[in-house]
Amino acid sequence: MTAATTDTDDDTENGTESWVDPERVSLRDVLLPLATFAILLAIWEVAVREAKIPAWLLPSPLVIGEAFVDWWRELAAHSLVTLYETLAGFALSIVVGVPLAVAVVSSPVLQKTIYPILLALQSVPKVAIAPLLALWIGFGAMPKIIVVFLVCFFPIVVATATGLTAVPPALMDLIRSLSATPVQTFVKARFPTALPHIFVGLKIAITFAVIGAVIGEFVGSESGLGYLILVSSSQSRTPLAFAALVVLTLMSIVLYYAVEFVERLMVPWATKT
């Protein structure tokens, strides 16, 4: 008891602590990026003003902020369209990708036949597919959803397949010794082991999903943030285009952390440090 107290007192006198306040570390982790971002915005603002760059060429952060205030209704309406296309395509990629990965892992025949086809499809530029989808399906939301699906599909399949085959050999030997059925093996061993890998694929895919939605809107659309960027750029309303870009960035960040939050709920054993 005395020795422990003495050690603690020595640590305090030396200006050190035997533990780290997690709230203090968390606050620092938040403040440092925000401070860096604020400094970069200030440099941007000063550089544009000093160089007297016109707003139609490169708007300053204050001008972009004014565009937010003036066009917030349009930005909100187009954001909802892009968000719907992003989430719909992302959900479709999960519904199709995860079961397909399970089938590929379970069947050597499918692994040798379907997997190379998936790799070939992934190699095709989605920008080249988007005009064809618009030609075949039209200019509604469905072509954008399909583009998002194609962008998200491959990372989810690869991450899921990797996770399903990452079960430790000792655990598989134990399950076989207990005469577990294939379904029990999947539920008790393969799927829990694959969950962290699946969420890695989901976090990668959700950031790609926003990009896929914008690609689809660039090709042919009458709404969405991608459409707004094209129209505002063609009309030299560059501040509005930058405002739409900021909204797209914020959307990607929020969706990424939303997936990470779900991961912490579903896979708490893999997110603890």
From TrEMBL:
Compartments (UniProt record): Cell membrane
Membrane topology according to the record: Multi-pass membrane protein
Protein name: ABC transporter permease
Top-level taxon in the UniProt lineage: Bacteria
Protein keywords: Cell membrane, Membrane, Transmembrane, Transmembrane helix, Transport
CDD domains listed in its UniProt record: TM_PBP2
Main location: membrane
Pfam families: BPD_transp_1
Transmembrane segments: 30-48, 84-105, 117-139, 145-167, 198-220, 240-259
InterPro entries the record matches: MetI-like (IPR000515), MetI-like_sf (IPR035906)
ABC transmembrane type-1 domain segment(s): 79-259
Family that this chain belongs to: Belongs to the binding-protein-dependent transport system permease family.
Organism encoding this protein: Rhodoplanes azumiensis
Keyword Transmembrane appears in the UniProt entry: yes
